[in-house]
Amino acid sequence: MFATAPTWTTERLELLKTHFAAGLSCRQIAAEIGVSRNAVIGKLSRLGLSRERSGDEARPKKPRERRGRSVPRLQYEMLRQVYDEAAFTEAPVVSERRCSLLELSKERCRWPVNAEAEEFSFCGNTPLAGMPYCQGHTRLAYRSLARRAG
């Protein structure tokens, strides 16, 4: 077995404290002493050394850009429109354009139609904008709590 030299010798500790007091960054101290930046940060923390930040030296916060409405809000509005436009019915949704997994795309409803392995397919109707399902299957997938209870 090989013995490794200790990372923090008395000399390195003195250099660490001297460079820290001089205001060098952790990266600069690491390069001068010959250790990693993380080793310097860890040792400073264990020694309880930290630089006080005044309110003026704090990093300025970047202004947040508003890109419009949030995704959950947009989804809520789409679903609200689905429920408001059509009255809820228990009638089955007619899947006129059934398709296989290989034919499935963003332009086709992704609702699975048959559970049997040989006949398995997807609805294939045109989905609502921004949704994976057609209007009928969207109503089934995102049923409101009031409709679930009934």
Task: Describe the fold and architecture.
- With 150 residues, this protein is an all-alpha fold.
- The chain has two domains: 10-47; 72-149, no CATH class.
- It contains six helices and no strands.
- α2 (26-33) crosses α3.
- The termini are far apart.
- The mean pLDDT is 79.
Keywords:
mainly alpha; 6 helices; 0% strand; elongated
Strand content: under 5%
| Class by alpha and beta content | mainly alpha
Question: In total, how many beta strands?
Answer: 0
Query: How widely separated are the two ends?
Result: 74 Å
Task: Determine the mean pLDDT.
Answer: 79
Number of domains: 2
Dominant shape: elongated
Q: Helix amount, in percent? A: 25-40%
- The helix/strand series, from N terminus to C terminus, equals HHHHHH
Number of helices: 6
Major sheet description: none
Poorly predicted runs are: none
Computed CA radius of gyration, to the nearest angstrom: 31 Å
Give the SSE map.
Layout: H1 10-22, H2 26-33, H3 37-47, H4 71-85, H5 135-141, H6 145-149
